[in-house]
Every structure is written in C-alpha cells, then in structure tokens.
Design goal:
Blueprint (H helix, E strand, L loop, with lengths): L4 H36 L3 H9 L5 H18 L4 H23 L9 H19 L1 H8 L1
Helix pairs in contact: 1-3, 1-5, 3-4, 4-5
Length: 140
C-alpha cells in the first residue's frame, strides 16, 4: 500500500501534535515534582512561603499532595485533562499568592518560582484547551 504525500504530511502533523502535548505534560510534571521535594522536606524557602501565607505546615503539605496528584493524573493519557484542570487551579493559587502576598521575587530567587508557576499554568491551560470539547461534554 502506498502512502501519498498528503497522507504522509497528515501523519507527520499528528505525530508532531502528539509530541508537543507530551512535552507540555512532561514540563508540568518535571516542574511540580521538583518543587515537591522542597515542600515535603520542609526546606527553608517553602516554610517561609507558607508561613507568610499563614498556612504552614498544613498548606505546604496539602499543596504538595495536590501537586503530586496533578502529576500522576497529567501523565496518564486518560486522566490528563483532569490533571491539567487541577494544575490550573493549583497554579492560580500560586500566582495569586505571588501577586498579592509574597511578591514576584521570594527570598532573592529572581522571580524563578513565579516564572515556573506561570509556565506550569500556561502548559495546563494549553492542555485543557486541547481537550475543550471533552470539557464541554463534561459540563453538559
């Protein structure tokens, strides 16, 4: 069986799309897993952040658990939409905490945590947008 140029281009486009969305999922997972270490080991910066928010230690541990669940859900193709929605929620909380309580820069990090939260949020929003028809079906 011969595949025409149009068929080959369509297959290549689909593969690029699949790879792109897996990169988005992996970016979210890597960022969140990396921050889990600091939350669960009660690093000085994490304790400072959650103390400033007035929710140390339960908020730190609870947020860590929510992020861990997000990572698990986002890496399983069947549940990645739910992981992305959950990731959006967690990151909105992080972004608002930076904007209204902590400031962009926390303990001279140069805004790294804020930028990572924005990247994670944008990746999650992109993943939710990709499956927007599933979201609409869930709402109906």
């Amino acid at each position: 069986m011969r595949i025409g140029v149009k068929g080959l281009n369509k297959k290549t486009g689909i593969m690029k799309s699949v790879v792109f969305f897996w990169i988005m999922r992996l970016a979210v997972a890597v960022i969140l897993v990396q921050t889990l270490y600091f939350k669960f080991t009660a690093s000085e910066e994490s304790v400072y952040i959650f103390s400033a928010l007035g929710i140390e230690p339960y908020g730190r541990i609870g947020t860590g658990i929510a992020e861990l669940i997000t990572v698990i859900l986002i890496l399983i193709p069947r549940t990645s939409l739910f992981g992305a929605i959950m990731g959006c929620g967690v990151m909105v909380g992080a972004i608002f905490a930076h904007l209204f309580v902590l400031g962009i820069e926390v303990k001279n990090d140069g805004g790294t945590l804020f930028i990572l939260a924005l990247i994670t949020f944008l990746c999650c929003v992109t993943l939710v947008f990709k499956d927007r028809t599933k979201v609409m079906n869930l709402l109906n």
